[in-house]
Design goal:
about 80 residues, mainly alpha, about 70% helix, about 0% strand
Amino acid sequence: METKYDIFVMRVVYINNKDRKYGIDIIRIIAVILVLSVHFFLNTKYYDIVDLGGNSIRLQTIIRNFCVICVPLFMTITG
């Protein structure tokens, strides 16, 4: 039977594994930044804007649509 200590030791061994794929960690960091960006749009009243005719709102929409890929990224990375 495994104890909490055994599980902790297994995780430390896994983290210190020399076969670790650092590219996945970089993608995870990028996904965290994208999550912060999506939450930033919530606090800038982006979703309250009615006029969609300006160039500023178009640029914000393009950036937000790019940032939304953070959810599938996290799901893909974590399995």
